[in-house]
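User: I've been trying to design a sequence by hand for this structure and keep getting stuck. Would you show me what you'd pick, starting by listing the structure so we're on the same page?

Assistant: Good idea, let's start from the same input. This is the structure you sent:
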């Protein structure tokens, strides 16, 4: 089960990045180009937050139940914190990704609540960009980029 969920989590990373980049670029173009907020803008934000949620659920399943890394780390937390790679998985990766999910949802919520199209785009652009920065900072670039 672990390899399957890990593979799905790895594939989902690319979906999150692609949809997040599309949503962010479109929001910046709308903000800077003073374009109207459209159904496509709304849907891209929705798809971005959905992909973040699915990725978070897969990640939590790995973190809490399936991962041999976290299972071993929880048995000797002190030693795990002394090892940079284990600490990355145990604390840094999950913390930054939870922050990214929160930022994505805040951006979507604030953009929906804004009454002026420029503000909708501005809020989406800022928060989606911050979410993407957190994701990029916490992606394990030292692991294979493709699951096969």
């Amino acid at each position: 089960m672990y390899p399957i969920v890990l593979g799905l989590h790895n594939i989902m990373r690319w979906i999150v990045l692609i949809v997040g980049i599309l949503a962010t670029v479109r929001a910046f173009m709308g903000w800077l180009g003073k374009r109207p907020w459209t159904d496509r803008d709304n849907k891209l934000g929705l798809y971005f937050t959905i992909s973040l949620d699915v990725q978070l659920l897969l990640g939590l399943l790995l973190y809490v139940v399936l991962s041999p890394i976290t299972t071993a780390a929880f048995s000797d937390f002190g030693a795990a914190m002394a090892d940079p790679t284990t600490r990355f998985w145990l604390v840094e990766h999950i913390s930054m990704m939870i922050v990214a999910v929160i930022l994505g949802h805040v951006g979507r919520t604030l953009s929906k609540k804004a009454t002026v199209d420029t503000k909708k785009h501005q809020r989406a652009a800022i928060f989606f960009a911050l979410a993407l920065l957190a994701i990029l900072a916490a992606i394990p670039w030292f692991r294979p980029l493709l699951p096969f």
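That's my pick for every position. To get oriented when you compare it with your attempt: Residues 33 and 131 are 22 Å apart (CA to CA). The chain has a mean pLDDT of 93.
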